[in-house]
Amino acid sequence: MFCMEIARKRRLTAMARGFFLLSHPGPVLFHIVAVTIFALLAAWPTFVWSTIALVVAAHAAMQISIAMLNDYCDRKADAQVKKTKPIPLGLVRPREALVAGLAMIVLMVLLLLPLNPLGLLVSLIYLALGQAYNLGLKSTPLSGVMFALAIPLVPVYAYVAQGRTLPMLFWLIPVGALLGIALNLANSLPDIEEDAEAGAHTLAVVLGIRRTLLACPILIALSAIIIASLTGLHIVEAQLWILVPTLVLALLACGAMLLFRQAGQAGGKPEIRKRYFYLVVFTCLVLAGGWFMGVIGAMGATF
Questions:
Q1: Same domain, residue pair 62 and 52
Q2: Are residues 53 and 156 in the same domain?
Q3: Assuming Cys at both sites, which of 61, 81, 120, 179 could form a disulfide with 112, CB separation 3.0 to 4.6 Å?
Q4: Out of 89-98, 99-108, 257-266, 276-285, least confident range
Q5: What are the pLDDT digits (tens) for 114-172?
Q6: How far is CA 32 from CA 23, 195, 208, 254, in A?
Q7: What is the pLDDT of residue 159?
Q8: Cβ(74)–Cβ(45) under 8 Å?
Q9: Are 150 and 30 in contact, with CB atoms under 8 Å apart?
């Protein structure tokens, strides 16, 4: 009855709340923080703030479009198992979600037109991966592959959109792939039972809760080992006073993730798994950001 009442007569505040929730503010915020960090690192030491603003705003628009179209594509399944989402609640109508998601894509393109064309190309590739995820791949083990391919594109985009490059960008592919799979698994944890009930065969569902909780710190630790090896073999130079604390902090965070295993197993509270997801995101940001700062520091910049 409550949902029907909202659907019949929606207040402006309810609509605003619906669109806010439709944008997946938590995950999108982390993406915005990540692209902002990489955009600032790419611009160092000469900051053209108008360019940085366009880079961040365009990526934010793309992430919001992916989030909105995700809820549009999942509207029927959400009506059965995730009834608190904005579309099942009637706060946002399906057509409104579709139009808003497409409008964000248009906004992304318009914001990127004044910048390096490579920035638009990388964004369109990322967008294609995100929408492929929405259109069905999210319910398959390939969902992890989509994240593995998309995550390395974030720093690449932040650099090429500003006409910059780094020798380490090639090595972002294996490191970013491992971190991307970890993020995908952690993001799937809070809804793993609902996804399994709905018949989805995501990578997290296939692995199960115990192995998913174990896989995330292992993947992050492997990324840290690759970064340490690249530095130790002088393939990618980095300032040790920045890199070593970064690696230590990342490995300590991996140890903390292992402590979540008992609390976050089957029957555990979804809120605990959500905190686990935030810990994984924080660790990935610290590891990738610290590596970048170490590399740039070795190239002569002063932080």
A1: yes
A2: yes
A3: 120
A4: 257-266
A5: 999 999 999 999 999 999 989 888 778 887 788 788 888 999 999 999 998 877 888 88
A6: 13, 27, 30, 23
A7: 92
A8: no
A9: no
Whole-number Cα distances in Å, 131 to 29, 137, 139, 150, 171: 19, 9, 13, 11, 25
Structural domain harbouring 8: 1-165
Q: What is the mean pLDDT of residues 265-284?
A: 78
Give the end-to-end CA distance of the chain in Å, rounded to a whole number: 58
pLDDT at 262: 61
- 186 & 110 share domain: no
- Assess whether pLDDT exceeds 50 at residue 7: no
**pLDDT tens profile 178-215:** 998 999 899 888 888 877 777 778 888 889 888 999 99
Can you give the CATH number for the domain in which 50 is found? 1.10.357.140
Same structural domain for residues 150 and 261? no
**Domain finish residue from 147, 165, 183:** 165
